[in-house]
Design brief:
single chain; 104 residues; alpha+beta; TATA-Binding Protein; five-stranded antiparallel β-sheet
Length: 104
């Protein structure tokens, strides 16, 4: 298992409708385990050693994962692709040049 930490350009101050759309998307992703103490989790059940969780941080939507690199890469790319389609703007990592969306 490898540890992965990545931020996405979804700002903590995004309006409620963005978080509502993301909550729906979370449940459509592989390995969905549900909200545990208000935090979305994937694969965090039974004796599965894999885990993914997300949290809202000043740096953006942050993902923490413990899983093999190849599986993580596929899952994370799928999330970014689906989130981009759902939210209507390109989702990616701020350190890769993806800017936070402005809601005005």
């Amino acid at each position: 298992m490898e540890i992965h930490n990545h931020n996405l350009n979804i700002h903590y101050s995004s309006p409620d409708y963005i978080w509502d759309k993301l909550a729906e998307l979370y449940s459509e992703m592989p390995g969905w385990s549900g909200f545990i103490d208000g935090i979305p989790h994937w694969y965090a059940q039974d004796n599965d050693k894999r885990r993914i969780n997300a949290s809202v941080e000043p740096s953006g939507l942050q993902f923490y994962a413990e899983m093999q690199q190849e599986e993580w890469d596929k899952w994370f790319e799928l999330f970014k692709k689906k989130a981009s389609a759902t939210l209507g703007f390109e989702i990616g990592e701020p350190e890769d040049g993806f800017e936070f969306h402005s809601y005005s």
